[in-house]
Design brief:
Layout (H helix, E strand, L loop, with lengths): L5 E9 L6 H4 L34 E4 L11 H9 L3 E4 L4 H10 L2 E4 L2 H10 L1 E5 L4 E4 L2 E4 L4 H9 L3 H7 L1 H12 L9
Parallel strand pairs: 1-2, 2-3, 3-4
Antiparallel strand pairs: 1-5, 5-6, 6-7
Helix pairs in contact: 2-3
């Protein structure tokens, strides 16, 4: 997983609320477990609509309750594979939000009025370290769990977090090999 510090560039706007994971990536494309190759199927049914256009810019801006529905991991995989590095919306489904952070796709929740203004801006910078989104001469702060922020800034997925504790794990295992009670605390 690549570390995230700042994401900047043009915005892709999907002005729809309550977008569920089946709309993000339909069920017929969920027959693989690899994380790649899903971008071409992103918003598959909508992409058939006349006039549909969603360029693969670094940031997707969308409506409230994005990622609702089932808990499929394929939805964030498809968004990331398509080229998005951040998704900004007024709100996200909890499991979708969590799945995004585990693969290095930054979900940012901003107030509805700020999301509306951002949709008009055309481009933005998402600064994870400062926890702000900059656009059109404005700077809007966002909240993020400190542990999630740490993981994203350092490019740590679940395996990376475990490996960062390798010395403590090795010390614990050495202590377990000795006869008697374990005294090493993680």
């Amino acid at each position: 997983m690549e570390p995230i510090t700042k994401i900047s560039g043009a915005l892709s706007v999907l002005d729809r609320s309550d977008v569920d994971t089946d709309q993000i990536i339909p069920k017929q494309f969920l027959k693989r477990v690899e994380r790649t190759g899903f971008g071409e199927f992103l918003f598959y049914d909508w992409a058939k609509e006349p006039g549909w256009e969603l360029p693969p810019n670094p940031v997707l801006v969308t409506g409230a309750n994005f990622g609702c529905g089932s808990s499929r991991e394929h939805a964030p995989w498809a968004l990331e594979d398509y080229g998005f590095k951040a998704v900004i919306a007024p709100s996200f489904a909890d499991i979708f939000y969590s799945n995004c952070t585990k693969i290095g796709l930054l979900p940012v929740a901003l107030p509805e009025e700020d999301v509306r203004a951002l949709m008009e801006a055309g481009e933005a910078e998402v600064d994870l370290a400062a926890q702000v989104v900059r656009f059109g001469g404005r700077e809007v702060a966002f909240d993020i769990d400190p542990e999630i922020k740490h993981r994203l800034l350092n490019g740590l997925d679940d395996i990376g977090v475990t490996l960062s504790q390798e010395d403590a794990i090795a010390a614990y295992e050495r202590e377990r090999e000795r006869p008697g009670p374990v005294t090493t605390a993680l």
